[in-house]
Amino acid sequence: MTARIIDFLNTRRPDGPCLVVDLDVVRENYLTFAHALPDTRIFYAVKANPAPEVLALLASLGSNFDCASVAEIDMALAAGATPDRISYGNTIKKERDIAAAFARGIDLYSVDCEAEVEKVARAAPGVRVFCRILCDGAGAEWPLSRKFGCEPEMAIGVLEHAQALGLRAYGISFHVGSQQGNTEAWDGALASAAGIFHTLAERGIQLGMVNLGGGFPTKYLKDIPGVENYASSIDAALKRHFGNRIPETIIEPGRGMVGNAGIIKSEVVLISKKSADDEVRWVYLDIGKFGGLAETMDESIRYPIRTSHDGDAKTPCILAGPTCDSADVLYEKAPYELPVTLSIGDEVLIEGTGAYTTTYSAVAFNGFQPLASYII
Amino acid sequence: MTARIIDFLNTRRPDGPCLVVDLDVVRENYLTFAHALPDTRIFYAVKANPAPEVLALLASLGSNFDCASVAEIDMALAAGATPDRISYGNTIKKERDIAAAFARGIDLYSVDCEAEVEKVARAAPGVRVFCRILCDGAGAEWPLSRKFGCEPEMAIGVLEHAQALGLRAYGISFHVGSQQGNTEAWDGALASAAGIFHTLAERGIQLGMVNLGGGFPTKYLKDIPGVENYASSIDAALKRHFGNRIPETIIEPGRGMVGNAGIIKSEVVLISKKSADDEVRWVYLDIGKFGGLAETMDESIRYPIRTSHDGDAKTPCILAGPTCDSADVLYEKAPYELPVTLSIGDEVLIEGTGAYTTTYSAVAFNGFQPLASYII
């Protein structure tokens, strides 16, 4: 919650739900990462919030960009990043998209299997690749599946295959899970990475880089460790596993860069009970799972919600979105405490919504417009 | 799978994932409903697929329209429906949206609590309202929550309140759950509805209508009962509970009207394993949970998938989408059997995708375009 956002909402009074992002907070987050991890290059995860103003600010501050598609690469280029500051970080790429990235000068690609290496070797000869390894994700609030990465033993073969096909086997990446609350979560993956570096060195392949991924949390309801805590834990783990041969490192913050910079303004559309003796109220907002709050899936991310009645007594509510979809319920298994004085028509502010909201928004489900966004 | 769709795909060869909808199938579905339920008015659930061509066809056939928002009302009007053929079927409406619908001449509104009745009474004086009651949804494949509707006992008070505020207490609605496989699912709710009719009649309020909702399935992997089976079961339940005073009835098919009219064309982007001894393959498509296949949430809807290798031996696969989101996995708990000969770059056809796909698509998650749609 920043004074600039409150002032914007009071002055502009936009109709309908909207996200407002304060660029001053994004700047502060970038500088905090850069200060805490001075030897690490920052690749902003564009997918978290690709608003042109956010990308332009980060480009001007010196950030690099982790892109998931050719469209995101084009956005990063348009924001002023040069191709050497962009990685194509999706392990799942069409060969023609790899060719399009190569034509734009992109030199750094993510892989996690031999088939992907072969596509990169054909479509982007000679570029650098890093292999993503699996990580268990314990401690993360957003579920981490086995979708990306391979077992560390397999990564050795993947990178040997890359080198054999004329690519440059450049490093290892992993992801400790989004909204990771455990500052020690990087240790196990760094141990695996060091083992791969060692094995490949014995086979004549010198890796140079470890991509530490994202996972840096933003503050929702619970307090989170500061970036400096993550930095010192990662620094200690790097020294523990790599000794005096610390590789180049990069990080890919997304949520940690923009999450706390944004607030969604919403409106209470209806408050009701299902029977006279119902103990919880149903509170329906004008934004839900399909309007930008997709990360409430399985009630994973629990956003702080401010109302003008905060301070009044609270009772448990089931919180739901405005669409005619019975699955469009935000919090029900663990009801959300809201003021008893909350009324239909009241404005509510949903904090920590700068990341993973606008782009998740459905194009027009139930005829509702996608989430509007103002970058100030 | 229709010859027209196959011909379209072979001739046009669109790049990227897309939905193709065959209007001949929509016409056939409409006529099947109209024939099986000759005394029931059909209100197409616009949210299932609001493509202008679909709405225009249904309007020309005589369909009415169940709309979830003012934007959907405007689409139905633009397609040629008059206001008397449109209901505002969302129980969660902003008062200013009710006023906008009233200004367009809409006379039929859904409610499920007294607070919503009060909004309608203020913003749309004198209109007809129906009260939605809860239904357990047993037998449905898409989860039905308690989000919409109230307990039948409460509906009596809601409709009395409506009448007292100058509205016309017009009927009862319920929803037996989407993709409902049990043709008898309507019986319990019709018993409740008849009870409410009876109680209100004793209090001097004559209800006239039962809205039987949607729930009519489309064929995915399993065979489904024909519409005529649903019709005869509903007819018997109406007679059982209403005797010789059968009310006006309406249905709101969405999935049952357009689901089997559409096919999504997709492409295999990657096939991989996570370790040398992995027993399942990971198959990554260029469409996933955020590109239109949102109904794979919790693996609820299981689409039939056709490949050019059908007939070859099959092995279990984990099916996932193309985004950098670990939650973008379609089928994993119950892996999907696909041909061992399936290769990267192969086209796959996902059947039964005419409903609840395009509008669920995210605006630009990971930079991917929303699902393209061709109505032929």
Overview of this protein structure:
The structure is a homodimer of 376-residue chains. With 376 residues, chain A is α/β, with parallel strands linked by helices. Chain A folds into two domains: 89-253, TIM Barrel; 260-375, Lyase, Ornithine Decarboxylase, Chain A, domain 1, CATH 2.40.37.10. Chain A has ten helices and 16 strands. Chain A has helices spanning 3-12, 23-36, 52-61, 70-78, 95-103, 114-123, 152-164, 186-202, 227-242, 255-258, and strands at residues 18-21, 40-45, 64-67, 86-88, 108-111, 128-132, 168-173, 209-211, 248-251, 262-272, 281-285, 305-307, 314-320, 329-339, 347-351, 372-375. In chain A, strands 1, 10, 11, 12, 13, 14, 15 and 16 form an eight-stranded mixed beta sheet that branches. The first copy, chain A, has an eight-stranded parallel beta sheet with strand order 4-3-2-9-8-7-6-5. In chain A, helix 7 (152-164) packs across helix 8 and helix 8 runs parallel beside helix 9. Chain A is elongated. Chain A starts with a helix and ends with a strand. At the A-B interface, helix 4, helix 6 and strand 10 of A face helix 4, helix 6 and strand 10 of B. Chains A, B: Belongs to the Orn/Lys/Arg decarboxylase class-II family. Chains A, B: Pathway: Amine and polyamine biosynthesis; putrescine biosynthesis via L-ornithine pathway; putrescine from L-ornithine: step 1/1. Chains A, B: Keywords: Lyase, Pyridoxal phosphate.
